[in-house]
Automatic annotation (TrEMBL):
Domain of life: Bacteria
All residue ranges annotated as the Cupin type-2 domain in the record: 58-117
Position of the signal peptide: none
Protein name: Cupin domain protein
Length: 146
């Protein structure tokens, strides 16, 4: 089939873009059970006792995403490249593109990540003054593709 090589070439091009054409470094590969697929984070600001807000540049490979999770102080996501998804529990999934911004309400379960065929890069701004992120179950394939 001719379509498969075209899709593979597009995914390789998007991965190359995600590695070379970003504002901040891709950072370290995330090695935990809170993500499905490969993702990398570069912490731009780490929360401390003076200011508990952390800021991270997160790069998701095509198809990669977080588990469902919530933040007691909320979170802000700034899309800086590629195409991604964001979904709050009980709401439809949103498509995110470069320049989109999302304000995740406190304690609302949500997930975010890349679309199936394109990488996604985001800045995640997370306050920790009300406690750490609460990680929940993985996003099912049905939920991801719905």
């Amino acid at each position: 089939m001719l379509l498969l090589p075209v899709l593979q070439a597009r995914a390789q091009q998007e991965q190359k873009w995600a590695e070379e054409d970003t504002i901040f470094p891709r950072g370290e590969k995330i090695e935990n059970d809170h993500f499905n697929g490969a993702a990398w984070v570069s912490f731009l600001i780490r929360g401390d006792s003076t200011n508990q807000t952390s800021v991270g540049n997160v790069t998701f490979e095509p198809g990669a995403r977080t588990n469902w999770h919530s933040h007691p102080a909320g979170q802000i996501i700034l899309a800086t490249g590629g195409v991604g998804y964001y979904q709050e529990k009980g709401s439809p999934r949103r498509v995110l593109r470069k320049g989109d911004a999302v304000k995740c309400p406190p304690n609302v379960p949500h997930w975010h990540g890349a679309s199936p065929d394109q990488a996604f890069v985001q800045i995640a701004i997370t306050g920790r003054e009300h406690g750490p992120t609460e990680w929940l179950r993985p996003v099912s394939e049905e939920e991801y593709h719905r």
